[in-house]
Amino acid sequence: MEDRSLPERPLLERLARHLAASTPNQWPDHVEHAATILALIKEPDGAMRAAGDATQWGLMIDAALRDRWSLPHGSDHASAESANDGADEEGEIRLPPQAVGHDRADWIHLHHGEEKPS
């Protein structure tokens, strides 16, 4: 039986903590890297599509990526303003909250033909 007494950590935080295994106290420095990994696996491969619902998988990854803005960020995100910014999938282009819209996962578009008009 699972112990539910401890609060469940979001997937993004668990990934960041795993990436920071050698320096556990610095896991916030790895949040962006963890988000990039999630963005990369959003589009399922053939084996994953054969095993389940690809649309549902994408929605689940989007939900996990939304946690990015509620987690602490590392030293490269020291100011409150930059900690609230978004980024493209690869984390290369910083996007202010105004560019992201109300749904902070709007910038994630790997489903061709389903993109929202600007």
How would you summarize the topology of this molecule?
Layout: H1 11-19, H2 31-40, H3 46-51, H4 54-66, H5 80-83, E1 86-87, E2 94-95, H6 97-100
Antiparallel strand pairs: 1-2
Helix pairs in contact: 1-2
Distance between the termini: 48 Å
Any low-confidence stretches, pLDDT <50, length ≥5?
76-85
Main sheet overview = 2 strands, antiparallel
Number of domains: 1
Based on DSSP secondary structure assignment, what is the total number of beta strands? 2
The Rg value, from CA coordinates, equals 15 Å
Task: Please state the structural category.
Answer: mainly alpha
Give the CA-based shape. Answer: globular
What is the number of helices?
6
Give the integer mean of the pLDDT values: 76
Element pattern in H and E: HHHHHEEH
Order the strands across the largest sheet as they lie in space: 1-2
Determine the strand fraction and express it as a percent band.
under 5%
Task: Report the helical percentage.
Answer: 25-40%
